[in-house]
Amino acid sequence: MLEAISTDAAPAAVGPYSQAIQAGTLLFLSGQLGIDPASGRLVEGFAAQARQALANMAAILRAAGAGLEQVASVDVFVTNLEWFAEFNAVYAQFFGEHRPARAVVGVAALPLGALVEIRAVAAMDAGQGGPHA
User: Fold this and answer.
1) Which fold has domain 2-123?
2) What pairs with residue 77 in β-bridges?
3) How many whole angstroms separate alpha carbon 94 and alpha carbon 17?
4) Over its length of 133 residues, how does the chain's per-residue pLDDT go in tens digits?
5) Residue 119 neighbours by CB under 8 Å, 6+ apart
């Protein structure tokens, strides 16, 4: 059974998709941009966008009853690979010693002119989840 996860603590989807979908013990998070959920606008600068996208991801995980320590895989899309080291520094602030599988991919453009987009998959224990659990 698939269950959509939604929270006001992260920006609403900018298209016809869910913030996340729980499928059994897997939680699939849609790509998160550096949008401030309060204003609905992109924050300024690469590091700030990366930080906000990761904060949005953490908020969606919390809404599903999970945390960053359960993230198994992260895909990162950036419009300039020269920001790789800067991204690593921001990423480490969120994940600490936890090391999910990860890919960083350079792309020509992202929605709304964003500089970074981050999507993830988390592994949840059987019976774990948000309000439905």
Assistant:
1) 60s Ribosomal Protein L30; Chain: A; (3.30.1330)
2) 105, 117
3) 25
4) 999 999 999 999 989 999 999 999 999 999 999 999 999 999 999 999 999 999 999 999 999 999 999 999 999 999 999 999 999 999 999 999 999 999 999 999 999 999 999 999 999 987 666 543 3
5) 28, 29, 30, 31, 32, 74, 75
